[in-house]
Here is the input.
Amino acid sequence: MNIFSITIIQHEKYFVKRNLKFFYGTIYMFMNEAFGDTGAAYEESRKILHCDVNNFYASVEILHHPKLRGKPVAVGGSAEERHGIILAKNYIAKPFGIQVGMALWQARQKCPDLIILPPDYPKYQKFSALFRKILLEYTDLVEPFGLDESWCDVTAICGKPGAAKLLADEIRERVKNELGLTISVGVSYNKIFAKLGSDIKKPDATTVISPTNFKRVVWGLPASDLLGVGRQVEKSLKGVGILTIGDIANADISYMEKLFGKWGAHLYCYANGLDNSPVKPGDFTPVIKSVGNSTTCPRDLVNDNDAHIVLFNLAESVAERMREIGMMAKTVQISLRTSDLRWFDRQAILPKPSMIAAELAEEGMKLLRKNYDWRMPLRSIGIRGAKLIPYAPSEQLSFFADETKRNRAERLEYAVDDIRRRFGYEKLGRLILKTDDKIGQLDAKTSNVIHPLGFS
Amino acid sequence: MEELLKSDYKVYVDVLEMRAKDGVITPLGFVWEDGRRYAVDGVTDIRKAASLKAGGAGLRYTVKIAGNSRFMFLEEERGVRRWFMEKKG
Here is the structure.
């Protein structure tokens, strides 16, 4: 092969590369249109940090209770009331097999010495705000992802090579000194790799993923490490022999699209470092703003009694989902569709924030009685708990409500959750649902789950 | 369990403080847990910091007390500002 032909080959390679970029660019234009991104063209020179506070809830607790340092610690549910799940754990609890989402009794079985503390959300919110305040000293472009993670676009202040890593180390030191918490930071040229980087080395470490090293650092990792690959996607990928992020990157994009639709193209781009979504500044707001469920009934509803049965059924699933995410609703909303397909909704403030099915359903019924006179049968009905706030056991004294009774109702609901989790949803139900075979049999919880919006 | 959650080195103290017209707060003296009173002779440094020893975080003042350097932390929790100091040991 002579020099001339080598030059041509290299030139061709360059040309192919350019065309590929053009191709990706087209995908981006399409995706930007579809998902409303306003990002600029694909850009390798961006400098994005993803800062992740290590074991956030557990770390804040240990900071405030120094004697717990060196002991297995978890934050979860309400330990005294024997319900709830593990929300966070420290590194010492990890080798025992303690996992986030595990029931407290399971965790205790795995690690009898585990110290489980109830969550203190106001404290976590305060530390989350202080953490973000440090980041905001460097750039306005700070995008929170949950209480304990944030992306920062530091392109403007990190022009020199290596500057972003130095900045990441500086932020790590500051958070450690000022807040007593360790963070891990991923430094990269897109949000996906930055997030991946912050997961690679923990705790208290910086990982750089650059356009030149990403194949070596990222492609060997399991596919499930990639943002957007959940349990279901992972299972499907495994089924077709795609195990690593590298496998996703080297798969055919049209094949990925065939498997997962638009999301497949997303994943392909993520794995190839072609994500160009901008860091969108904003305050942290909980991802889930309301929890609701609605159904079109097997037969039209004609009176209060029918509506009561369905509302109760829906409220059960809504309340259970709120308990799963540890939230209570301040308002309740019902939506009604009549048999001539007219639709309206009404809302009311609950006497007290609640995650008790009966309270939601009763308030919903009150709304219905007040606002609907049954001139037409109802085709579908929905109930939604909104203005969510973190759950706190009912202790606060009130002049009018019987708190012990309410507390018992809360505990009863948790007990029902527990029985259903262990033996199946249908094993325990309200008698009211048995009063009508047709409209009472809907399994609201499993058949009609609306998932909160994920990352897109 | 309760014993585990108590800090052996965190002492909340009563503080006499000056709030300057620019908003800056300076401690002038404090009452230690045994009731003894101490005067703060001067502040040499103010910065945000965590106390891993006592357990907490806030604004850390490095102060001079009878020729010795000590830390005083101004902590804010649920809208309440309190001073704490680290016990020796």
Q: What stands out?
A: The longest helix of chain A spans residues 3-35. Chain A touches chain B at residues 63-68, 71, 115, 122-123, 126-127, 130, 176-181 (CB under 8 Å).
